[in-house]
Amino acid sequence: MRVVIMGCGRVGSRLATIMDAEGHDVAVIDKNPRSNRRLPGSYGGNFIVGDATGEDVLIEAGIKQADVFVAVTQGDNRSIMASQVAKHVFSVPKVVCRIYDPIRQEIFKELGLQTFSPTTLLARLIHDTIEE
């Protein structure tokens, strides 16, 4: 499976490491050239420095052949924009987007993006712990 990941922070680097270890063809895009330090020495995928909201950077990462695009940047706007480009311009079959703002997450979920909000997930987890 060809996986393109936008963001090489804690989540993006961990996901890339897992997917690479499973034998998937992985490319990670990040604006910070030093963020690749989060990837282990065993990582065999690609690392592209650039802004994944730009089509040229996505093409360099192999978006045209991608089966999955995952956006896990710190900025909701950039993640949403790149996810929409992956889904609607490049027709990537599976697009997953982390959105911190629960209201935005619901809006873009209704517009067809597969989204999740760590804010909502953590609130539910804490609630369930309290109710136990």
What would you say this structure looks like, in words?
This protein has 132 residues and is of the alpha/beta class. The chain has one domain: Rossmann fold. It has 5 helices and 6 strands, in the order βαββαβαβαβα. It has helices at 10-21, 55-60, 76-89, 102-110, 118-131, and strands spanning 2-6, 25-30, 46-49, 68-71, 94-98, 114-116. It has a 6-stranded parallel β-sheet, with helices on both faces. The mean pLDDT is 94.
Strand line-up in the sheet with most strands: 3-2-1-4-5-6
Shape: globular
Q: Estimate percent helicity.
A: 40-55%
CATH superfamily descriptor: NAD(P)-binding Rossmann-like Domain
CATH topology: Rossmann fold
Strand content: 15-25%
Low-confidence stretches: none
Helix count? Answer: 5
Overall average residue pLDDT = 94
Q: How many distinct folded domains?
A: 1
Known CATH architecture: 3-Layer(aba) Sandwich
The counted number of beta strands is: 6
Question: Major sheet, described briefly?
Answer: 6 strands, parallel
Query: What is the H/E string?
Result: EHEEHEHEHEH
**Rg calc:** 15 Å
